[in-house]
Structure formats: structure tokens, C-alpha cells
Amino acid sequence: MNKNTAVIILAAGKSTRMKSDIPKVLHPICGRPVLEYVLDLVDTLKAKEVIAVLGYKHQEVRKILRPGIKVAIQKKLRGTADAVKTAMPLLKNFKGTILVLYADNPLLKKETIKKLLERHINNNADATLLTAKVNKPEGYGRILRDKYASISGIVEEKDASDFQKSIKEINTGIVCFNKEKLAGSLKSVRAKNAKKEFYLTDVISLLYGSGGLVGGVDIGDINESLGINSRAELAQANKIMQKRLQESWMREGVTIIDPDSTFISYGVKIGRDTTIYPFTVIEKDVKIGGQCSVGPFAHVRPGTFLDNNVTVGNFIEVSRSRFSARSRAKHFGFIGDARVGPSVNIGAGTVTANYDGKNKNITRIGEKAFIGSDTVLVAPVKIGKRAKTGAGSVVTRNRDVPGGVTVVGVPARPIKKSQ
Ligand code: UD1
Ligand code: MG
Question: Which of 57, 73, 102 to mutate to test the pocket of ligand 1 (most atoms within 8 A of CB)?
């Protein structure tokens, strides 16, 4: 169905309310830029053409666009109608439906967009809006309806009368157009409004005025249309996305004791029967096997891979490290740039001193090694299979401990050879 669909993603905005030097669509939600979520959604539509309208810091935003997406640069931010107009030359030969999406709407679901497109196409409408009924409509454009309850226009908050402000049906901003009708109406949009901008929303009353058919689809879940305009909305979106991600992990057989105090980034992998205890942060690029135990108060940072049956317990920070099966670090410590073999026990308070001020160095710990409490392993260093370190020992750099040997003290030295 989507051979006849083109998507225009509006992403030129300056993010004024974010008070940020970074374009808002590049701010992360669950460890991933806002825009990536919108791009995922667009991928599922398999549209014929996808145009991104960029402006503010477009070189940076462009970097995360995917192959096949064309870019139109809006030099001056003169409003949403102007933004869409900028994209139109790239659709010169296209005929069909144009879907307009905002790049700052990361929570939209593909089912919702599919429903909107289907309704639009089946009704052969000139425009179909995604609308919502909300208790607090402040800041949104309000939907105007005629005496037959047909949509007749949209009025922006700043231009609305008191009566119009009391309308609780709002414009989410997501809309489908018949291309020819859109192109025709865009020419007539004027910047005669409080913001002196060219509003895309004016196309609706223009189409209605010329006898066009304008439809509406209710979004159902208003959270889906949450736009990221401020840091508060960014936090709100993070919460909603976090809930979605956690629910999907729970469906896959992961136990999350307290979802509210657990933070799992997008793209993390977690195996079945793993339990995540409260106050745990799992960042991106992390893979956790099955039957693991993580937290409480664990910080699992990027580049970490935990094999099955691994325990990373209370107050442990792990970064860029691999733990093989059945290894455990149960009580506070820092494990960075480590390669931990299977069935290793890392005692309470163990620290890998991985950074020498210039480079990050690797610590290797062999199978069944036993690292005594409060050991410092100054990397690069290697602890052999079944080797042991005594409590409080400091194993200095390059002073590798051979397999089976026990070392103690500061600096650590061997005390005996085990069989
Ligand atoms: C817009 C709608 C409003 C709707 C609300 C939903 C208009 C006139 N108003 O208002 O009815 O309720 O969204 O969130 O459309 N952009 C550009 N170029 C520009 C201006 C904006 O690319 O010149 C992009 C922005 O980056 C953003 C999107 O268009 O992604 C929407 O712009 P924004 O200024 O946030 O519109 P709102 O005032 O929120
Ligand atoms: Mg907005």
C-alpha cells in the first residue's frame, strides 16, 4: 500500500525551550537519540520517498539519517508550512499520500500511523489528522468542527479566542495529505498570526473552505504524541519509553523487581530468568545472559557482556568488561576493561585500576581464580587460572600472577604454589 506514500519528517526546529547547544532530536531517550525512534517507525512504513527537513545544526542531525532519506534544508525557520514547502521540490514526480511527522515525537507507534494512513486512503480524503482529547490542551492547536461535527480547521493556542482555548480536542501534528491538494493549499498559506509564521495547520481550513474532505483519527493514547520541547518532556518521554522497554523484557522472562528504580537502555539484551534488582542502571551496548543476578545498586556500563549465571551484585560498577559463565562480583567494586574467565570469584571491594592517566588497560582473570577482598589489580595485568590474591593485596602492573599461585600484600608477592 505504501508505494503511494511519501513521508516528510520535520526536524528543522531550533529547540529553543530545551536551552541546549545540541539539537533536541539528538537528545537521548533510554540511551538513544529521539530521532532514531522516529526513523525506526518510518522504516516500517516502507514509503516510496522519505524527506527530512533539517535546519538548526543540520550537519549533526544528518549524520544519523539512514540511506535513502533525502534532505531538504530550511534556511530560515518560518513555520511548519514553510518547512513542508521546502520538501516539495523533492517530491515533484511523486503522486499519492504525504504523511507529515515531527522528528520530536519518539513515542508514536507504527500501529497508530498505519491506522491513520489506512483511514486516509480508504476515505479518499484530502487530509486526515491524528487528533487527541486531553484534559490539558495548553500549548496545542485546537481542532475546530462545524455544525455537522466535521473538522473545519485548527487554531493555534496563541491565536485562539477564550472559547476556542476551552476546546479539549487537539492537533497532534501528525497528518496525511493528498499531495496535489497539499501543494495547492500551501501556496495560499499566509503568516498572518501571532507568531508571524507559516502554519501547516492553516492548510486544513483552506481545504475545508474549498469543499475538501478532512478526516480525523483519535490517537487513543495521548502519550504517543508527546513532543520533546523541553527538558521536562524529555524526562517524561524517557519514563514512558523505559516502561515500554521493561515490559517487553518482562514478557521475555526477565524479572525486574522494581521497574521504577531500574533503568535499562534501548538495545540492551537480557536472557531469561535473569533478575534485575532495584536501583540498577544498565547502559547501552550491554548483553546479559540468562539466570544472571544484577544489582541492587549496580551500574552496568557500555561494552559489557555477562554470560549465563553471572552475578554482579551490590554497588558494583562494570564497564567494557566480559564475565564468563558463573563468575561473580557480589559486593561493591569497580571492574573496568576486564576479561573475567568462568567461575571466578571477585571479592568485596575489588578494583581494577584500568586507567594510568593516558590509556585504559586490560585486566585478565583466569578460570576459577579467587580475588580476595579489597584487591587492587593495576592493569595491564593477568591473574592465572585458579590463582588467588589475599585480602588487601595490590597486584602491580605487568606483575602477572601465574596459574595456581597465591599472592598477598602490597605490592603483591607469591606465598605458596598450590597443586
Ligand atoms: C505544532 C502545531 C500544533 C500542534 C503541535 C503538536 C503548527 C502551526 N502547529 O505546534 O497545532 O498542536 O505542533 O505538537 O504546525 N519545524 C520546522 N520548521 C519550522 C518550524 C517547525 O521544521 O520552521 C519543525 C520543528 O522542528 C518540530 C515541528 O516542526 O519538529 C513542530 O514545530 P513546533 O514549533 O514544535 O510546533 P508547535 O508550536 O509545537
Ligand atoms: Mg512542538
Answer: 102
So what's the pLDDT on residue 3?
78
Q: What confidence tens digit (pLDDT) does each residue in 268-305 have?
A: 999 999 999 999 999 999 999 999 999 999 999 999 99
Determine, yes or no, domain membership for 176.
yes
pLDDT in tens, 378-408: 999 999 999 999 999 999 999 999 999 999 9
Q: Please report whether residue 221 resides in a domain.
A: yes
Please answer whether residues 90 and 51 qualify as being in contact, where contact means their C-beta atoms are separated by less than 8 angstroms: yes
Listed residues 178, 209, 225: the one ending a domain: 225
- Residue 232 included in any domain: no
Does the annotation mark 331 as catalytic? Answer: yes
Integer Cα distance of 317 and 356 in angstroms: 18
| Residues 204-240: tens digit of each pLDDT | 999 999 999 999 999 999 999 998 999 999 999 999 9
CA distance 330 to 308: 15
Residue 261 amino acid letter: S
Ligand nearest the Cα of residue 171 is 1
Work out the angle between the directed axes of helices 34-45 and 110-123 (0-180°, nearest 10).
40
Owning domain of residue 382: 254-417
Residues 323 and 403 in one domain: yes
Q: Tell me the average pLDDT across 3-31.
A: 93
Residue 416 has pLDDT above 80, yes or no: no
Its pTM stands at 0.93
How far apart are alpha carbons 295 and 282 in whole angstroms? 10
Closest ligand 1 atom to Cα of 202: 8
